[in-house]
Write a structure and sequence with these properties.
single chain, about 375 residues, mainly alpha, Glycosyltransferase, three-stranded antiparallel β-sheet, two-stranded antiparallel sheet, about 5% strand
Length: about 375
């Protein structure tokens, strides 16, 4: 366990000083390469990753703690989908050459995840499987290690065959409730089918992704606001949860639309992503300051806005229509959170991006949202 007190003495202190020097070098390079009108968010992203490593990563278990500086992830509660998003966050950092993480960390995490999940990759929840499969693809892209892709493929195949005709189609939320369909399960599935179709996948991948996309947008998109509703038939009454509109649902569907555009070469998918993103920016980001009004809350909710900003960043890299608006909003939030890093470079970053600071026992999910904000700002266009 690496604590702030370790920074003065010992191996942990040496590691910290080395990482800090590397981050400093990255800051100088970023500053030199940036134009006068371009602001570098490499320092913000690196320091958010540094905090992720210092406060949550367990060097012995090779897993992430659920709370900062607390607990043993090898024996405590295992949160499969938080670990998946941590894997994605670290993969994005490795892909851009972060000084904080190395490819070996991703491999160690994969090995530990398999053991912690009982020696298998599947899960009772298809949405959780989808997030893990996306994370494995992120890790494969960062490292070139096809063992990650193979895990993602295994999970996607398990998700794909769960399609059924309840509620007119769609992927169920979990194995024990196959008549409840929601965007958290179908958004990742849509993204995965389109992504695998582009890199040597199987013949059924793109048709499956297209079928899921058609069902999702026809069933769960609000024709008035353009936002995505959460799900249908949760209570067994075939009703849509129109009062449930969450940031992460918008994010994953934006990301899925971008993958559909790449797979089909049809710009209408980016236009759909633009429409959802514009509605999300209006709903959750203050018009005057750009600061995010989704305060997340505890538990899973802490991750919600992080998923949105990750995929908003991906869209900004590819959308001439919304690039400026998205980058302005994300940058405003990074600048605000960056003020907390000025006092301590490995500062925990809170649920409230528009005010306040983080408690010392901050949950992993909440800090991950800020990490994903930093990575979202640094994403490049995928061609």
């Amino acid at each position: 366990m690496i604590r702030w007190s370790d920074l003065v003495h010992g191996a942990a202190g040496m590691r910290q000083r080395t990482i800090s020097l590397l981050i400093g070098g990255a800051m100088v390079i970023a500053s030199a390469c940036a134009s006068a009108a371009e602001e570098s968010f490499v320092p913000f992203a690196e320091h958010a990753q540094l905090a992720l490593r210092h406060h949550y990563w367990d060097d012995h278990a090779h897993l992430f703690r659920n709370r900062a500086d607390q607990g043993d992830p090898a024996t405590g509660d295992f949160n499969y989908w938080w670990q998946a998003h941590a894997l994605s966050a670290v993969s994005l950092a490795v892909a851009r050459g972060s000084a904080v993480w190395q490819a070996a960390d991703l491999t160690a995490l994969r090995t530990a995840l398999l053991a912690r999940n009982g020696g298998h990759w599947t899960n009772d929840y298809f949405d959780d499987e989808g997030w893990m499969a996306i994370a494995m693809r992120d890790a494969a892209a960062a490292t070139g290690d096809q063992a990650f892709r193979a895990v993602g493929r295994l999970l996607w195949d398990d998700i794909r065959v769960s399609w059924n005709d309840n509620c007119g189609g769609g992927i169920p939320w979990r194995r024990q409730q196959r008549d409840y369909k929601n965007a958290p399960a179908n958004g990742p599935a849509m993204l995965l089918g389109a992504a695998f179709a582009q890199d040597g996948g199987q013949a059924e991948d793109l048709p499956a992704a297209s079928r899921i996309a058609t069902w999702l947008l026809a069933t769960l998109r609000d024709p008035g606001s353009g936002l995505i509703w959460d799900g249908i038939n949760r209570t067994g009454k075939n009703e849509i949860d129109k009062g449930w509109r969450f940031t992460y649902v918008q994010g994953i569907v934006i990301g899925a639309c971008l993958e559909m555009r790449r797979a089909t070469h049809q710009d209408t998918w980016r236009e759909t992503a633009d429409g959802i993103a514009s509605a999300a920016l209006t709903e959750w980001f203050a018009a005057d300051t750009g600061l995010c009004r989704d305060h997340g809350g505890k538990g899973d909710g802490g991750l919600f806005k992080g998923i949105l900003v990750r995929y908003l960043g991906a869209l900004a890299a590819e959308s001439p229509t919304l690039r400026g608006r998205i980058r302005s909003a994300l940058a405003a939030n990074a600048r605000r959170l960056g003020t907390l890093q000025a006092a301590r470079e490995d500062a925990l970053l809170p649920a409230t991006w528009d005010a306040g600071s983080a408690p010392g026992d901050l949950e992993l999910s909440t800090h991950l949202s800020a990490v994903l904000l930093g990575e979202g700002l640094l994403l490049k266009a995928v061609r």
